[in-house]
Amino acid sequence: MAQRSKINLATDELHNLSFDAFDEAINPGSDWHDFDAVVEDAISRRSFLGGVIAMGSVAGLSAATTALTPVYVHAATSRFGFEAVSISTKDTVVVPKGYNWHVATRWGDPLFS
Fold first, then answer.
1. Which residues 6+ apart lie within 8 Å of 105 measured at CB?
2. Which of 8, 23, 24, 87 has the fewest Cβ atoms within 10 angstroms?
3. The pTM is what?
């Protein structure tokens, strides 16, 4: 009979818990996670430091060779079918030659009536 009262007591206590506390009581989380195991197996401190030093060396050497190599920049041809519009301070819309514009909707025009 004493065993049955312990079960009822535990059940009553579970009914008074919040959802998160109930979930933790029924399904307690483990201290060890799968991701931690994968990272620990793949990267030890020594191999990580070796990789960092190797990557730093490669980056340093590539930066040194890039600094010694002259860089020539060629103007790219436009992939668009119009000339670029120059900067303007006019109080109007500026479009490329051969194009025009018109107002689709003015400020304050009702849209859905």
1. 111
2. 87
3. 0.26
